[in-house]
Amino acid sequence: MMMQDRLNVIKEKALREHIPIIMEDTLEVIKRILKENKPQKILEIGTAVGYSAICFSEFLSQEGYIDTIERNEDMLTQARQNIKELGLENKINIYSGDAVDVLPTLNKKYDMVFIDAAKSKYPFFLQESLRMLNKGRNYLCR
Ligand SMILES: C[S@@+](CC[C@H](N)C(=O)[O-])C[C@H]1O[C@@H](n2cnc3c(N)ncnc32)[C@H](O)[C@@H]1O
Known about the structure:
- The chain is α/β, with parallel strands linked by helices.
- The chain is built from six helices and five strands.
- The longest helix is centred in the first third of the chain and has 14 residues, at 3-16.
- It is globular, with a radius of gyration of 14 Å.
């Protein structure tokens, strides 16, 4: 199955199951930012089934990758399966666990951070993201 067809299947299933994946209008805005800024290393907080990470991965350079954090076991299983089916295991790396615990263990630099998880923790997620964000780069919160 082609990438776009597979993405549509993932999206339709997620919508049927009321999983709050990124919507088309937001995705279009982020795709524009990705095209303009060409981030190599992206951090995502809130993987769900991997839909947004898979969409972003199209814009990565050869050496680029996405680290994404998810705590829900069912989401993790689906995300791993979707990423594997598309052969993106070397582009999208999943950290399983609560981002509150995972983020302090990371000491990397990112060119973009996409925060899309439990809203009550956003101040902490933002603080941790800013610690790892390269100068002049973007963070996006949904
Ligand atoms: C809005 S969905 C993510 C959608 C995904 N970014 C997409 O657009 O395809 C939010 C996800 O974040 C996860 N999540 C919420 N709070 C979290 C936390 N503190 N640590 C890790 N994952 C969290 C939820 O389990 C859920 O799967």
